[in-house]
Amino acid sequence: MYTFHMDVCHKFLIFIKSLIFLAFCVDGITEMFVTWSTVEDPNGTVVEYGLGVFEQRTVGNRTLFKTGMNIQYIHRVHLKNLVAGSRYVYHCGSDAFGWSDLFSFTVMKEGSNWSPRVVVYGDLGNENAQSLARLQEEAVLGKFDAIVHNGDFAYDMDMDDGHIGDAFMEQIQPIAAYYPYMTSPGNHEQSGNFSQYKNRFTMPGNFDSIMYSWNMGPIHFIGFSTEVYYFLQYGLKQVVNQYEWLKQDLMEANKAENRKARPWIITYGHRPMYCSDKSIWDDCSTRNALVRVGIPTLHMFGLEDLFNENGVDLAIWAHEHAYERLWPLYNYTVLNGSLEEPYTNPKAMVHITTGSAGCKENHSSLTDEMPAFVGFRSTDYGYSRIHALDKTKLIVEQISDDQNGKIIDSFTIIRDKHEPYTFY
C-alpha cells in the first residue's frame, strides 16, 4: 500500500494527466503495452502490477511531445511474460511523484480454440460522444475482450494545442485502461503527418502504429491506414511501403499452418471502398475510391484485389457516420453465397462500415435509394460487435444507442474453407 502526505498528493495530481490505455503487443497472449502521459517529467516511467497484488514492476521509456504550448511526456511500458487468461491489477507512475488510480486487465487466452468478442467503431469525438456511456457500461459487464477504434478521434486531437486530444483520451480511459484499445488513423488525424496519432497511441510493430497485425483466438486482425492514399503530400513511398507490408502479412497469414490455426482474416482501415453517402467529397460513392483501385490514373496499389485474392473474410471501415452492411462484393458485383444464405460461403469479401459512434459532425446523409450492393444501413448512433463463434462462424451485430442498445442488424458469416475467392 502507498500513502502520501497531502502536498505529495497535490504534486502528483499536477504532474499526471493519466489518459491511460492498453494495447496488445505482437505476442498479445503474454504481453501488453501500457501508455499514459504526464505534464512534466516525473523522473520515472513505471508500471507496478500483479495477480491481485503488486508483485512485479516494469520500467519503460518516455518521450517529450509538444503541441503548441501544450507540453507533455508520453510514457510507454511493455509488460512481458504475463499469464494467459489471468486478471492483473496495475497502476502507473513513479516513486518520485506517486501513482495513478488502480486499474485491471485480463490477459488474452492461449491458443485459437476460443471465441473472442471485439467491439468496433470509428468516428468518436470529444463532443457528442453518444455511444461512449453505453460502451462504458458494456465494459463493466465484460461484454467484450478488446476494442477497435477505426480512425477519427476527438475531432480533432491537435485542436486547442492538443487539449481536445487530452480531453478525449481522458474520456476513453474508463474503457481503454481496462481493455486493449486497438486503433487505426483517420483523416482527422492528418495534421503534422499524423503526429498526434503516432505519439499518443502504441500499437504493435515498427510503423508508428500506422500498420500492424495481431492475433486473437481464431482471428488474424490487420490494421492499416487508408489515409496514405489521400495525403500524398507526406510521400508516395508510404503507399508503396504499406502495400508491400500488407502483401507480406497476408502471405504469412495464408501459410497453411497459420490459416488452419487462425482462419478468420479481418482488416480494418478508416475510409471505405464502397458507400451510399450523398457527399460528393467521399470517393467511396464513386467507382474510383482510391483505397479500392489505387492511386489516381495509374490505378496501382489498390486493396480490393489484394484482399480478395488473399481470402480476407471481413473488411471493416468507418469515416461515413452511419452503419452499412454490404452483400459479398467485388468490383460492384454482388457475389452472394446463395440467394437464401448470402453470407454462407460468400464468393467475395464482406464489408461493413461502422462510423456512427458519435461526434460533432453528426450523421451522414445517405442516398434516397439504397444501392443494390447494400444489404442494410442505418444512421443511428452506435457501434458494432464481432464474435467469432468458432473457426467457421463469425457473428456481426450492430448496436443502436438511439434505440437503447437494441441490436438493429445481425448476420453470420459462415466459411467452411477460408481461401482465396474463386474468381482468382
Distance between the termini: 62 Å
Query: What about the largest sheet?
Result: 7 strands, mixed
Rg, Cα atoms, Å: 21 Å
Would you identify the regions where 5 or more consecutive residues have pLDDT less than 50?
1-15
Strand content: 25-35%
As a percent range, the share of helical residues equals: 10-25%
Structural class comes to alpha+beta
On the 0-100 scale, what is the average pLDDT?
A: 93
Shape: globular
Secondary structure layout:
Blueprint: H1 6-15, E1 16-24, E2 32-38, E3 46-50, E4 56-59, E5 61-67, E6 70-79, E7 87-94, E8 98-99, E9 103-106, E10 117-121, E11 124-125, H2 132-140, E12 146-150, E13 153-154, H3 163-176, E14 181-184, H4 191-200, E15 212-216, E16 219-223, H5 237-253, H6 256-261, E17 264-268, H7 290-293, H8 303-309, E18 314-317, E19 323-326, E20 329-330, E21 333-334, E22 350-354, E23 374-378, E24 382-388, E25 393-400, E26 406-414
Parallel strand pairs: 10-12, 11-13, 12-14, 16-17, 17-18, 18-22
Antiparallel strand pairs: 1-2, 2-6, 3-4, 3-7, 5-6, 7-8, 7-9, 10-24, 15-16, 19-22, 19-23, 20-21, 24-25, 25-26
Helix pairs in contact: 2-3
